[in-house]
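User: Okay, second chain of the day. Same drill as before: sequence in, structure tokens out.
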Amino acid sequence: MNKLTYSSKTPYLLVIRVNPDTNWASIEFSGKVLLDNYPKLISGDTIAECLSRINDLGICQLSIDSIIHDSTVNKLDVTVDVDFPMNESIKTLLSMAVIDPKKWEAKIKKKNGVDIKKDVKSDSDFKERLIFYDKGDELHRSPNRPFLHALKNPQQVLDFFRGKTRIEYNLTSGVMIRKILEIDSLQLMDVLNSKTQVLVKVCNTIFDRSLIDVKEGKLGFMLFDTIQDYYQNLLLEKHKDDEKEVELVFKHFYSEKSNFRRKRMRLRQIKNIRINSISNISNQLHLFDELLEKIRNAA
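Assistant: Same drill. Structure tokens below.
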């Protein structure tokens, strides 16, 4: 007999594959299967409820006890939701703090969040991905409407995720699951009950806080709206804010007919922008540190 497959992306991801000849089956599903209990996510405490809700669909009848005690995991999303407002500055800081951009490619999503993927050399390499995004914003988007319509109290779920950032780490092989979770077995409950702080471990591997230390001048470009102002700020910093020295540089490159008085005025404005904005950047760095601390406390 051929393999039997059920696949659906709405109102949530659910894929069931069965091979009656070998008595084998695989089930792939998201935490949304919990419906109104979605905020609890998939865990050792909720896995029985997840399977029970799949049974409620009437697609097939799963033996919940057998699955819990005799099944393995070969794909996994380690997820946590933290009270933290995602914004453009935080997305920029996350992408800048990546230790090895050649190994981990960070992409800032225009609509929502940051996507950090491991640069694999071949299909045989293990793919890893770390994502940060505004979960409340994502739930309000059109692809999630069928899910929200399936809930008894959608507003309660939306209220829970409002202002929350989701951090999600995708693992796509048993080898990586064992390595990252520091476990020997891929048995379902061994995976779900792992005490390893996976997201803390991964963030420590990917990010280096010192790369975005404002004292090192790494964030200067964030203070300005144009690259011309940024370049002039670099000149000021190089010459220790000595306007006369910078003016000598200008006179070397600009015509004598240039309006140097106006250029001096702009230099002073740029200097003031830098001085007045440093506190704003420091505040963003504080938020960056707060995000990592929340991950440590929640993971």
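The chain has three domains: 1-71, 72-209, 213-298.

User: Thanks, on to the next one.
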